[in-house]
Description:
The chain is built from four helices and no strands. With 105 residues, it is mainly α. The chain has one domain: Arc Repressor Mutant, subunit A.
Amino acid sequence: MKPVARKRYTAEFKAQAVDLVGLGKPVREVAEDLGIGVGILHKWVGKDSQPAQLGSGGLRAVGEQPATDELCRLRRENANLKLENDILKKAAVILGTKPQLEPAQ
Length: 105
């Protein structure tokens, strides 16, 4: 019987995966995107569980409730896109492809 080699993940990778789940993406989808098991991602999320402050109950957003909810949603989406972009850049480096340069504005 061969010994099974366990994969080791960096703390940064784990934190990014947990952040994606915290931003509202389903655990199964995040696990499939990152190529990890659903169970291990649930374990990481459980260890890092913190009460989320979303919607008009958040501490940073002030103003009318519909505008506040929209602002919070856009902030979550922006953070999610930044995190996914960072993960894709790192994957491109690992796979040996060059990331596309951002167009000059």
